[in-house]
Amino acid sequence: MIRYLLLLTNGGVYSDVDTRPIMHMSQWATGVENWTPALGPRYPVRMIVGIEGDLHIWRNWESFFQSIGLIKCGRHRPLQFTQWTIAAQASHPILIDTVRRIVDTSTLAHAWNITHRRQIEALEAANWRARAAKVMQRKKPWDGDTKGQKLSVQEWTGPAAFTDAVLSYLLATAGVREKDLYGLDHPVQIGDVIVLPVNGFNPTDQDISTTESRSIHMFRGSWRKPPSESKRPKL
């Protein structure tokens, strides 16, 4: 949440501590194809986002099996944007919408907690302790399924919520749909947003030297339990 609020109020570049630059930030908006010439002259760039994963690009056997449904997708969206690196102007509508989505979900979760607690108290007051115990064990919304995935941190405040906000904005302002971005292999500008392909902010070791790569994520995962090993070599 803090990354969105900082960018929303101050603008600039947010990047996780376990990322490393490949290209200077002043060059991130170069070599970009304008996808929305019908909107008039090229808009000033107000946000740069990168695709984290696209099931329509087979980078290895795992992604291939995910794309045909043989194994479960490790991401919350078939096309998902990174939020470990974001460049944005202050007050950008995508950031406003992301925060709105998080607040709405938090409000619903809070309301569920209140209702759940009142049900338990009412049953206990009626001396129906067995039923109260069953209600107490009822799964919370964030333990259940939402759009096929657990309502985890990634779904609630992470790349899933951010991806939904980005795609909604691109559709509303430029008529660009999610499927239009499938298989994207070069940077494009859509209105005031630059969209980088997967190797923009999430390159493989082989992609590091390509002209599309801007930065790399080392996947330290210090927030996980236990902390995971890095998937990247030290640069």
TrEMBL record:
<protein>
    <submittedName>
        <fullName>Glycosyltransferase family 32 protein</fullName>
    </submittedName>
</protein>
<feature type="region of interest" description="Disordered">
    <location>
        <begin position="206"/>
        <end position="235"/>
    </location>
</feature>
<dbReference type="InterPro" id="IPR029044">
    <property type="entry name" value="Nucleotide-diphossugar_trans"/>
</dbReference>
<dbReference type="GO" id="GO:0006487">
    <property type="term" value="P:protein N-linked glycosylation"/>
</dbReference>
<dbReference type="InterPro" id="IPR039367">
    <property type="entry name" value="Och1-like"/>
</dbReference>
<comment type="similarity">
    <text>Belongs to the glycosyltransferase 32 family.</text>
</comment>
<dbReference type="Pfam" id="PF04488">
    <property type="entry name" value="Gly_transf_sug"/>
</dbReference>
<feature type="compositionally biased region" description="Basic and acidic residues">
    <location>
        <begin position="226"/>
        <end position="235"/>
    </location>
</feature>
<dbReference type="InterPro" id="IPR007577">
    <property type="entry name" value="GlycoTrfase_DXD_sugar-bd_CS"/>
</dbReference>
<dbReference type="GO" id="GO:0000009">
    <property type="term" value="F:alpha-1,6-mannosyltransferase activity"/>
</dbReference>
<dbReference type="GO" id="GO:0000136">
    <property type="term" value="C:mannan polymerase complex"/>
</dbReference>
